[in-house]
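Q: Convert this sequence to structure tokens.
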Amino acid sequence: MADTSSNDRALIEGTGAELYEAALAEGGIANGDPRIAKKGTHRDAFDLLVSLGLLFHDEAGERWIAQDPSAVQSRVVAPMSVEGARLLEESSQWARTFATLAHVWRRAPQSDERGPFSYLRGYGIRDFIAGLMAECESELLTAQPQSGRDTEGLQSAIEQERSLRERGVKVQTLYQHSARRSTATRDYVAAVTALGAEVRTLDEFFNRMIIVDRRVAIIPSPDDLGVALAIREPTVIAFLVDVFQRSWERAKPFRQRGDEAKQIADEQRSMTLRMLIEGHSDPGAAKRLGVSPRTYAGYIADLKEEFEAETRFQLGYEIGRKGISGDED
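A:
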């Protein structure tokens, strides 16, 4: 029997199924049936049904009779399953081989060509981070500004955290307060905190950062969204860890208690006031708060109502008249 392909399967699901059903309903298909008499889609489907053993000649050799598909399935599917298992095992072996080479590459003494800093671009960023996650041994620090987790890939992110925690890795993740509005982020946080990871949020704006085992840090390039910088220089990494820990100490645990929600809302209000007083544009202020421009506009509308101002000019006047700085408790 010839090798089958996705095109063969599509042919069976379409015209082939019609012929097979006709063979069952009509007690077989005659040798001279017009549907199979000349080349065409029906003839191609007929030949495939015969080659698969789904149609066979009766004893008189005059009609083609339908065969039970369960008697044929194992001959077609079993070889595919064996080949699929072989390819899966081979891909796993290749993945382990590359992981070993990557481990050797990262642990090797720094060469003049590579140095303590290297740029990552495009898909290379994702692959590099995936390699670091696989090698992480003791600590993972991540700072994720703006909206938090995406719904897409949520389960794989949770499984990655599970793998890290099973290896005894300490995981600390920092978001902005606005991430608490995201259902996907709340689901993610509930899952990973149950595994033992720690998650906190902060009202201030900060840049994205990943630090693995205090050995490698990754930060985005300010000039190109598709470029990141991998840092292996111990002094710079120690500085970045200190920046992270200072923010971590000021941040609040990601919980959903009512008193904390009120306090976080107050902090977002204070930061909105500071954005207005410092003269940031609406898009810039929204980015620093980690919210959409529409949500930021809602914050401004709330302040107008609070200060009984009809325009933004009146709002600014009232803020200045009352001596508000945005840093009040």
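The chain has a mean pLDDT of 81.
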